[in-house]
Amino acid sequence: MENWKxxxxxxxxxxxxxxxxxxxxxxxDGYGFVRTYPANEPRVDYFFHAxxxxxxRFNLLEEGDIVSFKPHxxxxxxxxxxxxxxxxxxxxxxx
Length: 95
Fold this sequence. Notes:
Strand order of the largest sheet: 3-2-1-4-5
Order of helices and strands: HEEEEE
Number of domains: 1
CATH class: Mainly Beta
Distance between the termini: 26 Å
Largest sheet: 5 strands, antiparallel
Number of strands: 5
Shape: globular
Radius of gyration: 13 Å
Helix content: 10-25%
CATH architecture: Beta Barrel
């Protein structure tokens, strides 16, 4: 797990301050969850919908991809908007 944290910190340092980084933990039909690992805090999960990504990109997501996003707090909880894949899962199966 420490390797993921190191990569997340490197990606975050290269992004705008208002964006967060996280790992795709679960993907379902049209939505999923991003998990972040804030320093000295417990992990946090953000909900996202397929519409929170550029058109057609949702189908390319895989669990383990590192993404950046704009975090928002809504009535139902934490949500990730404007998702962008920063690093593809290194365990991705090649086709």
